[in-house]
Amino acid sequence: MRLLFLSTISFSFFGCASLFFHPNKEVRFTPEFFELDYESRRITTSDGETLFAWLLKAKNPKALIVFLHGNAGNISEHLPNVYWLPQRDFNVLSVDYRGYGASSGKPTIEGLIIDARSAIEYAINEFSDMPIAVFGQSIGGAAAIGAIEPYKEQIGALITEGAFSSYEAIAKEVAKRSLLGYLALPFLGEIADKRYDPIENIAALEGLPIWIIHGDRDLVVSVGHARELFDRAKEPKELNIVFNGGHIGSFAVNREKRERFAEAIDALFNRRDLKAGEKR
């Protein structure tokens, strides 16, 4: 009975909240819409799934950004967050998790970590001639923190926006917004293995430049998650609380923020004594 109750609550909670895994197969935007030069790529994971990705190509790329998008939709819906980066000389490898878009499989938290690692490893192997940064938004930021440690010496910087500190914490935070969620609270500690939690992994990234971005009015993932992650992280690290900012999308429409973001990536590479354009 308890298992049935938990299954029912979990289905209702995650289905309605759209916070954990809300994939979509529909293509909303394409790189052609933004007049981008691009290639479709396919990445094989360590457990045999095939991830679909777009490589957005700059004319004179100085670095590569691995983009791990937020929970809802697929890479096509998140193009507005990164399409402008090739115009600023960054290649972008935007990857769909298993079960999202044209990727195979079904989404799980463990699978999310495997997918993030597979994307990072693919980037390291395929783009060894340029610096690499990882940019994860929301659940993509959480996955990046949990996945990047084995590759931290080969990555120039990690940037997160709207990431949460733990799967249990965000599950309980969202649960409190509904009566059904309140009923589920006693069981939500079993949602995910704590070894996948960003808060348990971020300290191990010492030496990797980390930039944590979060909106002060984020109604999906409260800004307290960013502060917890920043406090646990080791140097070099930066925290940017965006004034009047919501949940991700800080760079989708604001040209000034885009320029600052591009400049900040260069600064992060420099903090690692790895200037954009240099070989590792």
Descriptive terms for the model:
two-stranded parallel ribbon, 8 helices, eight-stranded mixed beta sheet, 31% helix, Rossmann fold, disordered N terminus, 280 residues
Can you put this structure into words, describing what you see?
- Helix 2 packs across helix 3 (139-147).
- By secondary structure, this protein is an alpha/beta fold.
- It has helices at 2-17, 109-126, 139-147, 167-175, 179-184, 198-201, 224-232, 255-271, and strands spanning 22-23, 37-44, 50-57, 63-68, 72-73, 90-95, 132-137, 157-161, 210-215, 237-242.
- The longest helix is centred in the middle third of the chain and has 18 residues, at 109-126.
- Residues 1-19 and 274-280 have low confidence and may be disordered.
- The chain has one domain (2-271): Alpha/Beta hydrolase fold, catalytic domain (Rossmann fold).
- The strands form two sheets. An eight-stranded mixed β-sheet has the order 2-3-6-4-7-8-9-10, sandwiched between helices. A two-stranded parallel ribbon has the order 1-5.
- Helices cover 31% and strands 20% of the residues.
- The N and C termini lie far apart (56 Å).
- The chain contains eight helices and ten strands.
- Strand 2 and strand 3 (50-57) form a beta hairpin.
